[in-house]
UniProtKB/TrEMBL annotation:
<dbReference type="InterPro" id="IPR002052">
    <property type="entry name" value="DNA_methylase_N6_adenine_CS"/>
</dbReference>
<keyword id="KW-0489">Methyltransferase</keyword>
<dbReference type="GO" id="GO:0003676">
    <property type="term" value="F:nucleic acid binding"/>
</dbReference>
<dbReference type="InterPro" id="IPR004398">
    <property type="entry name" value="RNA_MeTrfase_RsmD"/>
</dbReference>
<feature type="region of interest" description="Disordered">
    <location>
        <begin position="1"/>
        <end position="21"/>
    </location>
</feature>
<keyword id="KW-0808">Transferase</keyword>
<dbReference type="GO" id="GO:0031167">
    <property type="term" value="P:rRNA methylation"/>
</dbReference>
<dbReference type="InterPro" id="IPR029063">
    <property type="entry name" value="SAM-dependent_MTases_sf"/>
</dbReference>
<dbReference type="Pfam" id="PF03602">
    <property type="entry name" value="Cons_hypoth95"/>
</dbReference>
<dbReference type="GO" id="GO:0008168">
    <property type="term" value="F:methyltransferase activity"/>
</dbReference>
<protein>
    <submittedName>
        <fullName>16S rRNA (Guanine(966)-N(2))-methyltransferase RsmD</fullName>
    </submittedName>
</protein>
């Protein structure tokens, strides 16, 4: 995988092959960040990366100047790799080894942007729970955005604060925001690409 933009644009990162991950593809990541770039100034953006895996998304935010970044994953190998990579690039990333649901129950800090990439095999109720916990526990700033990566078999558009969805290949990204008048994302709702 490679960093697409920012200070470390073009740098390749090679995680160990034995990590239990399914990294977001470079194509999907580039499309995702093009959307985010239209709505945020990355510099100083507070980011929470859930089910962080290799840290792929965290590094992309960090390369663009986002900080602080908290990366949460339940696998020790993933957390060790994120810690090692953050140190190598001098990224402001704090890796936390934790079950994501336990983390969301206890965590009190709010963020400008939250990204979650749960295992595609997670059941529908668990995907729904992630969204509900984040909004109920006040983890997203009022003008912030949350994105969940999922498969076509896990619809999320029935949930409160759903804004719009995009699809790239087999990956779907559902965007969530607090409702507000004059929301500049309204035009993008239901603008998913067909597979």
């Amino acid at each position: 995988m490679r960093i697409i933009s920012g200070k470390y644009k073009g740098r390749r990162i090679s995680p160990p092959k034995n990590l239990p991950v399914r990294p977001t593809t470079d194509m999907s990541k580039e499309a995702l960040f093009n959307i985010i770039n239209n709505h945020f100034n990355f510099n100083g953006l507070k980011v929470l990366d859930l089910f962080a895996g290799t840290g792929n998304i965290s590094y992309e935010f960090a390369s663009r100047g986002s900080a602080p970044i908290v990366s949460v994953d339940g696998d020790f190998g993933c957390i060790r790799f994120i810690k090692q990579t953050a140190s190598e690039f001098d990224f402001d990333i704090t890796p936390i080894k934790s079950d994501v649901f336990k983390f969301l129950e206890k965590h009190k800090t709010s963020y400008d942007f939250i990204f979650a990439d749960p295992p595609y095999g997670l059941d529908q109720a668990s995907f729904d729970k992630i969204v509900m916990m984040i909004f109920e526990n006040g983890l997203l700033e009022e003008d912030g955005m949350m994105v969940i990566e999922h498969s076509k078999y896990t619809p999320l558009n029935h949930l409160p604060n759903f804004s719009f969805q995009k699809s790239y290949g087999g990956s779907f990204f559902s965007f969530f925001e607090f409702e507000s008048d004059g929301n500049d994302l309204e035009d993008e709702e239901d603008d998913s690409e067909e597979e």
